[in-house]
Write a structure and sequence with these properties.
This protein has one domain (4-77): YaeB-like fold (2-Layer Sandwich), CATH 3.30.2310. A hairpin with a 2-residue loop joins strand 4 and strand 5 (69-77). The radius of gyration is 12 Å and the shape is globular. The protein has helices at 9-16, 20-35; strands at residues 4-7, 42-44, 52-56, 59-66, 69-77. The chain starts with a strand and ends in a 6-residue tail after the last strand. 29% of the residues lie in helices and 35% in strands. The longest helix is centred in the first third of the chain and has 16 residues, at 20-35. With 83 residues, it is of the alpha+beta class. It has two helices and five strands; from the N terminus they run βααββββ.
Length: 83
């Protein structure tokens, strides 16, 4: 299934504060999400909004899926993401 990716303004702001080498890896994973999420390290979160997380090195991407749209809410370092 092909997905459309939407970024919330906060996620764009988060990307600007991350090192360029890490941003490149994050963008590559987001591009992979467009063609399917089954092969990625995605976990459904319990009692947390947004509902899903994707691990990319030391960063976490928090997002939701509605039909064929993936909305990315935040991209943060693993030590800060769930605060």
């Amino acid at each position: 299934m092909d997905y459309t990716i939407e970024f919330k303004p906060k996620s764009i702001k988060d990307l600007k504060s991350i090192e360029k080498s890490d941003v490149k890896k994050i963008i590559e994973k987001i591009e992979e999400m467009k063609t399917g999420i089954d092969s990625l390290d995605i976990k459904k979160l319990t009692d947390f909004t947004p509902e899903y997380r994707l691990r990319v090195g030391k960063y976490r991407i928090l997002f939701e899926i509605a039909e064929n749209i993936i909305t990315i809410y935040t991209i943060k370092h693993r030590k800060d993401v769930y605060k």
